[in-house]
Amino acid sequence: MGEECEVFIKSSVRGYHAYFVDASVTIGEVLACEREHDNAHDKYAIAVKNEDQLLVGHVPRELSKIFSRFLADYGNIEAECIGVRYNKGEGKGLEIPVDYRLTGNSNYLEKLTAIMFDHLDDNPQWCAVALDYVLDVVECNADENEYCRMLRFTKQYIKDVEPTQVEDDKDITLKLQSDIMKAFLTYTEYCETVYLKTLNEDENCSSCDEDEVFRPPKETKQEEDIKTPYIPEPFPEHLCSIQLND
């Protein structure tokens, strides 16, 4: 059985416009996520409640099925508010930006993440979540060799894809893809720099610990006199044969 671990997914709480009059949310507040079995619009609905147990919205529909399955099988989900409410103007109303924290069995979480990525073709709405997860992997999980490979592949992709001139919609699409990969290249180079800097600092700290030698404090003159007892010098031999006369 795998150890317990956490997975973070940056997304939002939707429908806040229907509840903000009675239920407030502050930045940094941790919200509870619960399955809402009596929801007539979405059988996988996940209700999000504030610290006063008041409803503030729901998990986005593109995530609700995955989250519902996770809560039903094994695990816990919380959402930390990471910003002020906003309205994108896409008919979704007020939303609250949050970091969803999924806590549970590591084996199950790995399978859950794999399921999301395996079904991206049928669920393009998950692509933003997948991209956020990929960027976290690049930052936290890669080593020096893996950074080198990513940089090499990314540079080659840009070289192969970037159009020499933009004339039609296809060229524009390729140009945008190339620009995205250039941004990814910059991000990866920065992550590699931070990784190598941290690695170097850790090695220097280890070296300092090994080279450190204990040096006792220098003794004072008084301490030296106490430590070394007085031993009188022997009587000179040439005087030993002299006889004292009365």
Account of the 3D structure:
With about 250 residues, the chain is an alpha+beta fold. The chain folds into two domains: about 5-115, Alpha-Beta Plaits, CATH 3.30.70; about 120-200. The chain has seven helices and six strands; from the N terminus they run ββββαββαααααα. It has helices spanning about 60-75, 105-120, 125-140, 145-160, 170-210, 220-225, 235-240, and strands at about 5-15, 30-35, 45-50, 55-60, 75-80, 95-105. The chain has a six-stranded antiparallel sheet with strand order 1-6-5-2-3-4. Strand 3 and strand 4 form a beta hairpin. Helix 4 (about 145-160) packs antiparallel against helix 5 (about 170-210). It is globular, with a radius of gyration of 34 Å.
Can you summarize this structure?
The chain has 246 residues and is of the alpha+beta class.
Task: Please describe the structure with a list of short key phrases separated by commas or semicolons.
single chain; 246 residues; alpha+beta; Alpha-Beta Plaits; 2 domains; six-stranded antiparallel β-sheet; 6 strands; 17% strand; globular; disordered C terminus; nucleic acid binding; hydrolase activity, acting on acid anhydrides, in phosphorus-containing anhydrides; HIRAN; zinc ion binding
- Determine and state the CATH class of the largest domain: Alpha Beta
The major beta sheet can be summarized as: 6 strands, antiparallel
Strand line-up across the major sheet: 1-6-5-2-3-4
How far is it from the N-terminal to the C-terminal residue, by CA? 105 Å
Structural class: alpha+beta
Helix coverage percent: 40-55%
Radius of gyration: 34 Å
Number of strands: 6
Oligomer: single chain
The CATH topology name of the largest domain reads Alpha-Beta Plaits
Query: Outline, from the CA principal axes?
Result: globular
Q: Can you give the mean pLDDT?
A: 82
> If classified by CATH, what would the architecture of the largest domain be?
2-Layer Sandwich
Domain module tally = 2
The succession of helices and strands, N to C, reads: EEEEHEEHHHHHH
